[in-house]
Amino acid sequence: MAGQNLFFSKSDLAYAELRDRILFGTLPAGSRLAQYDLAESLNMSITPLREAIRRLSSEGLVTVETHRDVRVSVMNSNEARQLFEVRLSLDPTAAELAAQRRTDDDIATMRAAVDKLLPVTRQWGEEALTAHRAFHQALYRASHNDVLIRLLDDLWDKSDRYRRLGLELPPGDEPRTRDLQEHHQLVSLIVDGRAAEAAQLMRGHITHSLTATAISALEDREGIRGT
């Protein structure tokens, strides 16, 4: 980590640390950021921390109510649905391109990632989420479209809060064996170059994701009838 610090400003480091804390739920949705306490814990002045907060605000992860009153953005069904809709469009594209462009190295990476998967359930928690992300990242990189990869990585980050919410709901206790099977099927389709089928399976995979479960729960909580 010390070697990496040579290449980043304190603002960059504050941004990365706060972003991780927000996405992992260490800083809960709606909580107030104690800026001076955070700056002290990060061993830096308030200026780079405020620069980091401005970046996080531009991403919608924090809400700046006044110069001193900053809160982690609340989770809501509207944001969850928007993230879901974009992934529903882009993930199938990544799967289709991966089936057309995958290399031998890509195949080896995907197979190694799929072998480490665990059911994304409350029982397995963060370990399962980490393995799940590694698999999808391997698939995205097999598309060999750098713009698409960056977009999907960002969407994945922002969807993490909603995945974790999904784990806390009743479906979070289900075995989710369907998900595991679909990951293996996706690898087979991509290896065989069956692009259209890979895209179709990915669309169904996203449709039944934990984010979709979170949307329904949030809509019920907000009194919104889903369409």
From TrEMBL:
SMART domains in alphabetical order: FCD (SM00895), HTH_GNTR (SM00345)
User: Which PANTHER family did the record assign?
Assistant: GLUCONATE OPERON TRANSCRIPTIONAL REPRESSOR (PTHR43537:SF24), TRANSCRIPTIONAL REGULATOR, GNTR FAMILY (PTHR43537)
Sorted keywords for this record are: DNA-binding, Transcription, Transcription regulation
| Gene3D superfamilies in alphabetical order | GntR ligand-binding domain-like, Winged helix-like DNA-binding domain superfamily/Winged helix DNA-binding domain
Enumerate the spans annotated as HTH gntR-type domain. 8-75
Question: What's the protein here called?
Answer: GntR family transcriptional regulator
What PROSITE patterns is this protein classified in? HTH_GNTR
Q: Which organism is it from?
A: Streptomyces cellulosae
